[in-house]
Fold this sequence. Notes:
Layout: H1 3-11, H2 15-37, H3 40-57, H4 66-85, H5 116-134, H6 138-149, H7 154-161, H8 165-183, H9 198-201
Helix pairs in contact: 1-2, 2-3, 2-4, 2-6, 3-4, 4-7, 5-8, 6-7, 6-8, 7-8
Amino acid sequence: MDETALITSAQQGDLDAFNTLILHYQNAVFNTAARILGDDDLAQDAAQDAFISAFQNIKSFRGGSFKAWLLRTVTNACLDELRRQKRKPTTPLEPETSDGEEIDSPKWLADKGMTPAQKAEADELEHAIQHCLNELPVEFRAAVVLADVQGLDYAEAAAASRVPIGTIKSRIARARLRLRECLRSFEELLPASYRLDEEQAR
């Protein structure tokens, strides 16, 4: 994918070029929203809002990481949604459908190659991680999702959050520490490669 050429075309109003960019990043955008909001339906709405905003404002993109720019857009959409909710109760670990039926782990985490036992363990781990993310202040949650879920470096995460790089480093460090403390309650669910040691928490 020639991202630069696609961006240039999209800035000139080429909807097909913009849609190609969105197809490439749609999973990252949705997953970011889902981790920040903790709700698939709200994440779908935030992602949709972000894509509309991105198309309307793509002429303002002046280079750098397009992924970071796009994730900033969805992060803003998520923060707007959380402001609307204000003190809405935390999403339960076992969200329900409109019919009151329990939902399994999010669709994007499904692995058709898993055994039932492996899927059950993955579901428990997913619920534990999302629970601990939900316990974080939203600024910390957004920072750690951008860095540790989406893989942005400090500069990109700072740009996506519109804060100084020192602020984003502090938020990520504090978020990792709080996640580590929270996940101690679920340590039996964590594979060795997922466990946070003292060095990772810094």
